[in-house]
Amino acid sequence: MDGSDHPALWREGLIARLRLRTARIGVVGLGYAGLPLALRFAETGFAVEGFDIDPAKVAAIGAGRSPVHGIPDARVAESGMRAHATAEAAAGCDALVICVPTPIGTHKEPDLAAVRDTLAALASYLRPGQAIALESTTYPGTTEELVLPVLARAGLRVGEDAFVVYSPEREDPGNPDGTVARVPKLVGGATPACLAVGEALYAPVAGSLVPVSSLAVAELAKCYENVFRAVNIGLVNELKRIAHAMRLDVHEVIDAAATKPFGFMPFRPGPGLGGHCIPVDPYYLAWKARELGVPSDFVELAGRVNDAMPGYAVARLRDALDEHGVTLRGARILLLGLAYKPGVPDTRESPAVEIFRLLEERGAMLSYHDPLVPRFPATRRLQGTSPDLASVALEEEMVAAQDAVLLVTPQPGMNLELVRRAARLVVDTRGALRGAGPGVVVAA
After folding, report:
1. Which of 193, 223, 294, 310 would bridge 354 by S-S if both were Cys, CB 3.0 to 4.6 A apart?
2. CATH 3.40.50.720 spans which residues of the chain?
3. What are the residue boundaries of the UDP-glucose/GDP-mannose dehydrogenase C-terminal domain, all occurrences included (predicted)?
């Protein structure tokens, strides 16, 4: 279709193809957010092209295997989607959805390299009649600052022959209710025409749509929903330190408060934040606020409190060892759980990795057990110096030989009864073994 003289034809033609499901969808980034979305598009009748710079993921999908924990191989094999390590096939896509990582740098600044690299790779294949949707979590203004100039340089007119959308991913790995098919989907467009295209793009796959007035509203809403959790987790992590000083069980306090049927939502303390959003979003929002000259005191304070939790866990472990006449340096310590939360193998920003680093600095003799993380991952926290360790089997003799067991993430199927029975000392950062006996120190 040549709609150059009638820009509305580009929009109407694309919307029609999306509604008829004859549009071809490209999803860039086939990880925890991108692969489920690509499969959802395929399962609702769209032809799907997937793109990822990781050749192992591309090969796995090409062989009908899932590279993401929790997604069955059969879903991938039956989807009919094709995966590519290069961007040439993007030219044939009517919509390109970007789901690449947006971590923070070493100084807590936004790291948008993956978004920039993706846009650079796609630039040669952009054409009239396409929609570009960004799903990666980021600060307000990113889509306008990064995506629109790329389209302009390609000679495309946003809202006329190209359509820009921001619709943040809301995947919750390991939670069957936290999928694109069940969760309301925010959609913001660069123009009203872009919003109309965005609604047509996501209506077939989302649980419901929540259109908003601009790209920045959708970006800020995504930041806010995760900062909300980070601030409240920071509050309860601070409360646990106060409760410990008062010799009170913070979980009993939370349970008591949670009986109020209005105006309260329970959050649980832990060893720190992990995952792809909650540890990152506060810093994205605080960075933007500083750029605007606006204070973000609550946001930054919550970040500092939560970042301090791995150190607090190590301090509680050291104190517990001291009471048993054992010094931390040279102590044999078993970490239980490297993933950032139960039920997934995801170690992104996991507090367990930071705890491992702190204990290694202090001279502890370390091993770990995580049935979903068979080898110690390469992580940003350890900056390429990850130890060459494999998960050890959880056996009674091995547990009994440790000076202490540090429970960081209780994975499904982890035999905590064996740990309680065999360990000399357990320091529990999640409250999973409350009331288990005198050998358990609850540091949560």
Report:
1. 310
2. 7-213, 308-442
3. 334-435
Domain spanning 308-442: CATH superfamily: NAD(P)-binding Rossmann-like Domain (3.40.50.720)
| pLDDT (0 to 100) of residue 280 | 83
Contact 132, 165 (CB under 8 A): yes
Residue 119 amino acid letter: L
99 tagged catalytic:
no
Structure tokens at 98: 């970007």
- Cα–Cα distances (Å) from 337 to 344, 410, 443, in that order, read 10, 6, 15
All CATH 1.10.1040.10 domain ranges in the chain, comma separated: 215-306
SS (H, E, C) 67-88: CCCCCCHHHHHHHCCEEECCCH
Catalytic residue among 93, 99, 223, 277: 277
- Is the separation of the CB atoms in 219 and 166 below 8 Å? yes
Q: How many CA atoms lie within 13 A of 421 on its CB side?
A: 8
Q: Which pLDDT score, from 0 to 100, does residue 266 have?
A: 96
pLDDT attached to residue 142: 97
Q: Note the pLDDT of residue 439.
A: 73
Burial class (CB in 10 A: 0-12, 13-18, 19+), 295: exposed
Distances (CA, A) of 20 to 17, 44, 123, 201: 5, 11, 27, 11
State the 10-residue block means of pLDDT for the chain, 444 residues long.
Answer: 69 97 98 96 98 97 95 96 97 98 87 97 97 96 97 96 97 85 96 98 96 98 94 95 94 96 95 81 88 91 92 96 96 96 91 95 96 84 66 95 96 94 94 80 79
Question: CA–CA separation, 231 vs 297, rounded Å?
Answer: 11
CATH of domain 7-213: 3.40.50.720
pTM, whole model, 2 decimals? 0.91
